């Protein structure tokens, strides 16, 4: 029986993970569930799955959850804050950790799971973007296992023959073809992007996801973050990765080999497939996902990315090449800009402008330790906030 901790249990990936686990109760037990502030949802999950621990990042929310569970006579122990998250991510009784907190907030608990030698199922791409070297070193030094959940990276992993940490260039890999749908604004006239609303941006054509990653998909910053993620996971550089816009989201990415073979992983756009793959690996198990009907799909399109429409792609590629803390700076500026867009403080094209301006005033440093990374993350947030406030005061 594998004991599973889900960091970010109340989110889109968290719910999909619980759905898969519920199909295999003979193999997996829910050890801990965590959330930020969503008391009611975590409470319902605790009632259903009866984990040993529940963690709320927010201290007040933790108290409320504790009261509700006590009234029901449930034995789930409630913890709070970053300490609580780190505790369950590295707990001696946890075998697998699903890292599905969104954004930089997931970095420290995810790193703790790696340092404790767990099987880390990595959905939280921002953690790897921020601290790629530290994180990969922690995996190797502590005999942890790293299985990618991001559908593209999980697809690439499935198209490779070896272990997650093999150097792909020794395996005859010529390049990685990283696919992305292009999001909801792929064909919208550029002049209309200024007035798109958060509601339009989060309405992804193929995937049902949390708000932040949905906006990232609309700007294609998501693909840029994924490029950086792929460089770390597969020990390569942006020169060996081609981004391919594929609107149907049926091919989840490809690997091209020296002999001309191109291997693709295909399926429905449903995250339960990579989640079930990573839980069962190296075996396979049912995920509950509908079968892919190729006759319904009928045809597949592939086009090159449009860098004018998606300036975030260029910014992320630049950050990937610069390395050090530059990707952490890019990520932090983007998180602040996306939140400002969702709050209607910033127009859609403003997201890329904020990121560009922050990258323009800050230079990355060597990302050898967590303190430096977190410091640059904080500085980038302040710079992004300042830029947004300045832009707003000019408009008003
Ligand atoms: P979501 O917004 O639906 O859920 C986020 C979860 O994180 C929630 O449980 C929330 O309570 C928790 N959380 C948020 N802020 C927190 C904080 N400060 N401290 C502790 N917990 C916090 O997001 P999602 O769509 O499930 O995405 C989660 C991660 O997975 C992201 O990094 C995303 O890029 C990645 N991912 C998601 C998908 C998808 O299909 N949703 C696909 C690929 C990768
Ligand atoms: Mg993805």
List keywords for this structure.
binds nicotinamide-adenine-dinucleotide, Rossmann fold, 16 helices, seven-stranded parallel beta sheet, four-stranded mixed beta sheet, 396 residues, Rna Polymerase Sigma Factor, Chain: A, binds magnesium ion
Structural notes for this entry:
The chain has 396 residues and is α/β, with parallel strands linked by helices. The protein has 3 domains: 2-148, NAD(P)-binding Rossmann-like Domain (Rossmann fold, 3-Layer(aba) Sandwich), CATH 3.40.50.720; 151-268 and 293-311, no CATH class; 323-396, RNA polymerase sigma factor, region 2, helix turn helix motif (Rna Polymerase Sigma Factor, Chain: A). It is 47% helix and 15% strand. The protein contains 16 helices and 11 strands. The protein has helices spanning 12-22, 39-49, 59-71, 81-90, 107-115, 125-141, 151-158, 198-202, 211-219, 221-233, 272-280, 294-297, 311-322, 326-342, 348-361, 370-395; strands at 2-7, 28-35, 53-56, 77-80, 96-99, 119-122, 145-148, 173-180, 241-245, 251-257, 262-266. The strands form 2 sheets. A 7-stranded parallel β-sheet has the order 4-3-2-1-5-6-7, with helices on both faces. The protein has a 4-stranded mixed β-sheet with strand order 9-8-10-11, covered by helices on one side. Strand 5 (96-99), helix 5 (107-115) and strand 6 form a beta-alpha-beta unit. The longest helix has 26 residues, at 370-395. It starts with a strand and ends with a helix. The mean pLDDT is 96. The structure holds nicotinamide-adenine-dinucleotide and magnesium ion. Magnesium ion binds next to helix 7.
């Amino acid at each position: 029986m594998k004991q599973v901790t889900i960091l970010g249990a109340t989110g889109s990936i968290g719910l999909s993970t619980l759905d898969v686990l519920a199909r295999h109760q003979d193999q997996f037990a829910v050890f801990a569930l965590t959330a930020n502030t969503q008391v009611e949802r975590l409470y319902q999950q605790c009632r259903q799955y009866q984990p040993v621990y529940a963690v709320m990042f927010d201290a007040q929310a933790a108290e409320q959850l504790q009261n509700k569970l006590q009234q029901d006579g449930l034995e789930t122990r409630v913890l709070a804050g970053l300490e609580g998250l780190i505790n369950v991510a590295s707990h001696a009784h946890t075998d697998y950790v699903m890292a599905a907190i969104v954004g930089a907030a997931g970095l420290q608990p995810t790193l703790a799971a790696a340092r404790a030698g767990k099987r880390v199922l990595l959905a939280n791409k921002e953690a790897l973007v921020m601290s790629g070297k530290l994180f990969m070193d922690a995996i190797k030094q502590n005999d942890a296992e790293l299985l990618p959940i991001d559908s593209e990276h999980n697809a690439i992993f499935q198209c490779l023959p070896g272990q997650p940490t093999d150097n792909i260039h020794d395996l005859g890999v010529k390049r990685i073809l990283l696919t992305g749908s292009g999001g909801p604004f792929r064909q919208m006239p550029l002049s209309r992007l200024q007035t798109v609303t958060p509601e339009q941006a989060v309405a992804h054509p193929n995937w049902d996801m949390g708000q932040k990653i949905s906006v990232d998909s609309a700007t294609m910053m998501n693909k840029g973050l994924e490029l950086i993620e792929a460089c770390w996971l597969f020990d390569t550089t942006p020169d060996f990765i081609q981004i391919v816009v594929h609107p149907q989201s049926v091919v989840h990415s490809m690997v091209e080999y020296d002999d001309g073979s191109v291997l693709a992983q295909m399926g429905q756009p449903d995250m339960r497939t990579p989640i079930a793959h990573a839980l069962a690996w190296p075996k396979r198990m049912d995920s509950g996902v509908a079968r892919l009907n190729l006759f319904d799909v009928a045809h597949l399109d592939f086009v090159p990315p449009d860098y004018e429409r998606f300036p975030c792609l260029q910014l992320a590629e630049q950050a990937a090449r610069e390395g050090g803390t530059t990707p952490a700076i890019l990520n932090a500026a983007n998180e602040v800009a996306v939140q400002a867009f969702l709050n209607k403080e910033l127009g859609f094209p403003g997201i890329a402008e904020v990121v560009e301006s922050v990258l323009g005033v800050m230079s990355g440093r060597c990302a050898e330790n967590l303190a430096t990374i977190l410091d640059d993350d904080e500085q980038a947030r302040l710079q992004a906030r300042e830029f947004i406030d300045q832009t707003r005061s000019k408009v008003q």
